[in-house]
Amino acid sequence: MNIPEEVKEIIQTLNINGHEAYIVGGCVRDKILSKAPKDWDITTSALPEQIKSCFSHTVDTGIEHGTVTVIINKNNFEVTTYRIDGDYGDNRHPDSVKFTSDITEDLSRRDFTMNAIAYDITNDTYIDPFNGHCDIKNKIIRAVGDADTRFNEDALRMMRAIRFSAQLGFDIEEKTYLAIKKNFLLIKNISIERIRDEFLKLILSDVPEKAVLLCDTSLIDHFLPELKEVFLAESELIKYSFDKLEKSIALRIAFLFRKFDDKAVSLILKRMRFDNNTIKEAATAVKFYDYPLKEGYYETRKVLSMIGVKSFKAVLNIRFLENAFNKDLIECKKLDNIYDEIDDIIKRNDCFELKDLCINGEDIKKNIDGANGRVIGEYLKKALDIVMKDPTKNEKNILIEELKR
Q1: pLDDT (tens digit, 9 = 90+) per residue, 373-384?
Q2: Residue 34 burial class via C-beta count within 10 angstroms: exposed 0-12, middle 13-18, buried 19 and up
Q3: What distances in angstroms separate CA 217 from CA 151, 187, 194, 265, one per listed residue?
Q4: Which side of the chain, N or C, has fewer Cβ within a 10 Å radius?
Q5: How far is CA 294 from CA 19, 256, 298, 311, 350, in A?
Q6: Whole-prediction pTM value?
Q7: Which CATH code of 1.10.110.30, 3.40.50.300, 3.40.50.2000, 3.20.20.70 fits the domain covering 143-217?
Q8: What are the structural domain ranges in the chain?
């Protein structure tokens, strides 16, 4: 694993000043799995004020919980003092923390054994009091200590367990899994934004069919009950399709909701605090999921004029994969041909939107008697239809003459 020079510098600086310091958590897990870490977390025996005294540029990110952000070469690295958490009154955050000089006490408060490992970069050794290395080797997700306690401390850990299971392809250890089933109601204390983010990581993972665990544990009943039957009934279809589907949030959401009413989908996604663009993209694909598609450039241009290239291709992708799973090769061939037609239309720069017409409202008003107000809009729609039937007619003189007739 290539540890960034800045991380080495932070740890060496803390060591020189008489403090222990290790990389910890997810980056250590990723190192063991030979994956490239996304974040680098550092834990140390130094108190927050001592951390700050060792570096010239720091930010008090979460200093009340022992976290100081050290900035080196314009890169941010979180450095956190060993700590023991107090009670978790809201099932998410500790009400208080107590700093400690014992790394084992710090590791004991973490969620899963695979994330409760510290790595000493100086001596190339692990501090692994809960056998996390072994669980990683055996592809097991196991709570540190008592699972009930861990999930009562932070209920989001239940979602994280299932998300990690999907991302890593690991199994959840039995006692840990039973504790999720027992404590699932605690998820109501977690913000919908946090839950949504974990859910999205799950469906963007390589094993999205693990979403059935959300159903089996009843977690999904709290935040997305509408999809429970979808995951239970379509597990194999989801696995088949998501293996081939682009890792796009809007596209995957649209696939899951493809048989729903588009207005209902918009309301559900708003409830989940999705951004407006994702809601619009997903709802549009859902709305046109069962639109009667026909081959032919005119028919294809008409659909493009209604929903645009991105949404049309999303609809085709969803329908193609569903039909491929069901081995309807005739329908797949038709959808494939339409996809090729879209590419040809784009390549030739054919007009299928009003903004690309060679005439505008002023042209119509000047050249066609009695054309004004709402009538102009009708003329423009007619002009677009003429051009979609025959792109070579997208010239001002030709269109004016056609419209006069």
Answers
A1: 778 889 899 999
A2: exposed
A3: 13, 11, 18, 24
A4: C
A5: 70, 24, 9, 16, 18
A6: 0.91
A7: 1.10.110.30
A8: 1-138, 143-217, 234-350, 354-404
Q: Which amino acid is at 313?
A: K
Q: Which CATH number fits domain 1-138: 3.30.460.10, 3.40.50.1110, 3.30.479.30, 3.40.109.10?
A: 3.30.460.10
Q: Provide the token pair at 391.
A: 């792109």
Asked if residue 42 lies in contact with residue 11, where contact means CB atoms within 8 angstroms, the answer is yes
Question: 39, exposed or middle or buried, with CB in 10 Å at 0-12, 13-18, 19+?
Answer: exposed
Q: Is the CB of residue 10 less than 8 Å from the CB of residue 21?
A: yes
Predicted confidence band of residue 1 (pLDDT cuts 50, 70, 90): low
d(CA 162, CA 169): 10
Tokens of 400: 């004016």
Taking all residues of the chain, what is their mean pLDDT, rounded to a whole number? 95
Number of H helices, E strands in the chain: 21, 11
- pLDDT by residue (tens digit) across 42-57? 999 999 999 999 999 9
Write down the pLDDT at residue 373. 74
- Percentage with pLDDT > 70 across the chain: 100
pLDDT digits (tens, 9 = 90+) for 203-233: 999 999 999 999 999 999 999 999 999 999 9
For residue 369, give the 3-state DSSP assignment.
coil
Q: How far apart are the C-alpha atoms of 231 and 222, rounded to whole Å?
A: 15
CB atoms within 10 A of CB 153: 20
Helix, strand, coil percentages for the chain (3-state, nearest 5): 60, 10, 30
Residue 63: pLDDT band by 50, 70, 90 thresholds? confident
Q: How far is residue 76 from each of residues 28, 41, 70, 317, 340, measured CA to CA in Å? A: 18, 10, 6, 40, 46
Phi-psi region of 371 (alpha: psi -120 to 50; beta: other; left: phi over 0): beta
Q: Could you tell me how far CA 194 lies from the centroid of its own chain? A: 12
